[in-house]
Amino acid sequence: MSESKDFLRVIVEEDLKSGKYEKVVTRFPPEPNGFPHIGHAKSICINFGIASDYKGLCNLRMDDTNPTTEETKYVEALKDAVQWLGFNWNDNVRYTSDYFPKLYNYAKELIKKGKAYIDSASEEEIRELRGTVTQAGSRSKYANRSIEENLELFEKMKNGEFKEGEHILRAKIDMSSANMQLRDPLLYRIRHSHHHRTGDEWCIYPMYDFAHCLSDYIEGITHSICTLEFENNRAIYDWVLDTLELEKPRPYQHEFARLGINYTVMSKRKLLELVNTHRVSGWDDPRMPTIAGYKRRGYTPESILNFCDQIGIAKANSMVDVSQLEFCIRDDLNTKVPRVLAVLDPIKVTIENYEGSEEINAPYYPYDVPKEGSRKVPFSKELYIERDDFSENPPKGFYRLTPEQPVRLRHGYIISCKEVIKDSNGNVTEIKAEYYPNSKSGSDTSGIKVKSAIQWVDAKSARKIEVRLYDRLYSSETPENVEDLNPHSLTIIKDALVEQAVILERPDERFQFERLGYFYTDPVDYTSENPVFNKIVGLKDSWAKKKTPEKKAEAKTTPKKEVIHGEAEAMSEVQQILFNKYTDELKLNAEVSNILARDEKLSSFYEEALQELNSPVSLANIVANEVAKELKESTDIKFTAIQIAQLIKMLDEETISNKIAKQVFEEMAKSGENPNKIVEDKGLVQISDPAVILPIIEDVIAKNPDNLEKFKSGNTKLSGFFVGQVLKATGGKANPKVVNQLVAKALNS
Ligand code: ATP
Ligand code: MG
After folding, report:
1. 382-386 and 463-470 strand pairing
2. Does the CB atom of residue 298 touch ligand 1 within 6 A?
3. Counting ligands in written order, which one lies closest to the CA of residue 34?
4. Residue of the nearest CA to atom 27 in ligand 1?
5. Is the CB of 286 under 6 A from ligand 1?
6. Residues classed as catalytic
7. What global pTM score does this model have?
8. Tens digits of residue pLDDT in 524-582
9. What's 312-346 look like in SS3?
10. Ligand 2 centroid to 31 CA: how many Å?
């Protein structure tokens, strides 16, 4: 378990301690409509990880409620991914479709309680009646059907007596709820399609909001962990379970931030499109961000687990840098895999003063890796080296072979160039060289200084291999569609060369080809006639430095979404100390603490304001939001930390309202004027005096007799209307708390 506990583990521990549950039971509930991706890996690590940390159980459940998009091959891919990552699910794989009979009965229960009804309105009517975010919806005329009629229609729906879209089952909750999800959500719909498991047995299918909470309940799940976009669905989750009055204990939903990675798309829909349009060779194409893709590319499960551990679990969405994932695999392979010699773009070297042949003993691992093993590397007169490692007219700082500069052959001798042979086009075809017999690696007495050692292979014994070089699938940091694909994401080299031991001894499946990167024997296409190696990752981050001129230009013109490292990067020691102080002592929430602690400018601004005014929470909020925004947009800000403290003081003392504070802040940002002066000059002081406010209220009421009538006859929501009118009449200067109280009194008198 990682040292610092994430918020989910904190909740789980509390629930176990308080005795709410005896054993934690989680689940990973994918919809089998695509191959799982690295985002799913995060969810798998969380659900299975928590179960294992607290000696609980984790179910693998196929959320197969949509017959039109689901397939058995996706089920297999999901099982494979979980197992490959090293987790075991509890018992058999579960399927929501196994619960269809139970779910159907629960739906009937809701109907019997008068809490669900069959709506026969058209899709369009339903949409219209739903209202908008600012406007309440209204209920369909079908909502008045009797329980008997609803039960009968529901049964007929199940029996296949209707066409798709003719009727739906809806929960009867609240058509004017501010949470749009609660406006009588859809529970069941008709689908005359073949289901991959239940065949044609059902032609009504439950919706996620109905099926998910009940499946959790049926399985005895305790913590139903999902991603943030389901936050608004939590209310339905609770409503269904509570309305059915199910026996306790019941599960509760908790949300975490979904993983996003730059240069990567992570929606199954978009990944499916890449497969269907043959932009990639399949779901397991080594460039795909799917578990199957990483697996085929040569990533280890450990590297993915490490990555998931490093990025942590947060409550705010953020973007992780893809180089962090690349770092994790590099880091894992560094101490694990044998190091061997390969040449991707060979150029011939003939050593004119060497006769015969020999075998050089070379260890597979460097001295600082605690692994044993070595092989014999054949050496003779004809060799190949990397074309790049020779330069006739070397640029400054070129440390490898040139006509004037000798170089060491890794594990072998030092050679120098004697003659360069070219074809009629001037391309180098061969290098004639000499070796120094007393320069052999490990027993060098030559005294010759070289600046580097390069890889090479013996011409006679080397094996030809196919090498597939992969680069990022997208060249845009925030890819949207196929136009953002990187046209150079795959390069195939058919005639690379590798020392024979790699093929004959196969000491491993993964290798470091020295100076080139990490490579993996392709699990699908590798044969002894045509050995294929996938490049897993380079030895260092090639994207960090190498920016082509086009890329630089692109970086200037295209606005980029910001990559927030909030979740990704570990904090420095100082940042961590600040963060702890903010959360523990000053009681700021984690998100605000995170923003402040990670930004030195913000934290020092905040600390300075705190010196002036002891109001940690209000100050933190304005610094992390308004001030941060201002700092981002301009380099020299006009206001000081002390002025911000003065502004917050007026707010705390209710001299000004929140709304006015914002207005004053904007003015300060523009002019640098003192907040007190702005408030005074513009007469923005908050009005809390009832003697001033009451006449305004009376005036508003007098002008709106219709609404007063409606209020009196039960439409209590209208008090909000009167409050709004009063605030407006005072130009936002009236104290909302006081107005609320006075309006309530006036309306009810
Ligand atoms: P996508 O939107 O990529 O198609 P999804 O959310 O529809 O994915 P599901 O099969 O429904 O995929 O998800 C299974 C589980 O994996 C869910 O609990 C979901 O919250 C989680 N999950 C999916 N994508 C991510 C992600 N990017 N980061 C973390 N968890 C994820
Ligand atoms: Mg989905």
Report:
1. unpaired
2. no
3. 1
4. 39
5. no
6. 31, 258, 268
7. 0.73
8. 999 999 999 999 999 986 665 444 444 444 443 333 333 333 334 677 888 888 888 89
9. CCCCCCEEECHHHHHHHHHHHHHCCCCEECEECCE
10. 7
